[in-house]
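#structure-requests
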Amino acid sequence: MVTQWILEIEMFTYLRADTFDCCSVFSVARRVVESIDRNDINFALRLIHNLVVRIITEPLCTSQVFGSQTLDDLCMRIGKINLARIQKENLCFTSGKEKQQVFCYIVTKLQRSGGHTRVIESFIKARPEGRHIIYSTELDGRSDSVYVHDGIAGQTGVDFVQAPSGSYHQRLTWLQECLLRANPKKVYLFNHHQDSVAVAAIQPEMGLDASFYHHGDHHLCLGLYLPHLDHIDSNPMGYHNCRSVLGINNSFMPLTVDDRGDKPADWSFMREGTLTTCTAARSNKIEVSYFVNYLELVPKLLNATGGTHIHIGRLTPWALYKVRRGLRHYNIRPDRFIYIKWVPSVWQALHHFRVDLYIASFPHGGGSR
């Protein structure tokens, strides 16, 4: 805890005051406490949410600040106060025992490219006899509801419930009431970094068997220090960092994939005489300040290889402009850069394009399906 406290001082105090008239996590914490004291739960949740957004968009904090005991404690305090009010106003939430065991998953947003969506799908498949409910706070924009309902929520026994439009406080009340009514056997927290509502919702007084799935592991993420949740890490780096550096009593649940077989027999390296490369990543993985810029490197790569580069994952118009401007600079044909917004299987795409070399995304890496 001492290490984390020092980290908070070193990494937060230099932050420039833009939205707030303060420049450290501790001064924001004071404003949160003041908001709680005057019963302004909504503003308190917003303060925490917005501070985390500022921190995760600061490049110097990336892979340096992973969690905040202070912010997690404030979320817990807010959720405890709100739960007490709910329980006072609503004497009974359950109408009897469910015929099926209920498993709940709390998310901030679900979309096609979200890796944790696939993890949730695997958790659901592992409990085919249960009823599964995915609650989304929708604090980071609206989920891709068509994709979700056509896929994961289209299965029997799976419900996808989006938070109604409203304030942060209203969404917290909605989520806590949903959990009390569902009376789940198990709850999994899959929140995005800044989702103060999701982190505040699960309280020890609920008596829930709940786990925090740490998938936002390269930035500050709310929820790391919730003592009443089992902390799950999905990669060895995150597991050892949380356990050895941050002092968290965690569990390791490695990601696995089905082996779909070897490459085709007629697939030879550089069969066209040039190198075919590929990267799969959305804008949040590569459109980030870094001393090596992916968007500038792609034209240089193609100029050196004389081959083709395939990019899988949605990029912003500005990013595409930068790549194509670089192609023009080196007099490279536009068709040697192939841009695909989304594919159902990266494995199939690698086979289809006969990719010779896969280049991992940077500065943030990501898993490819």
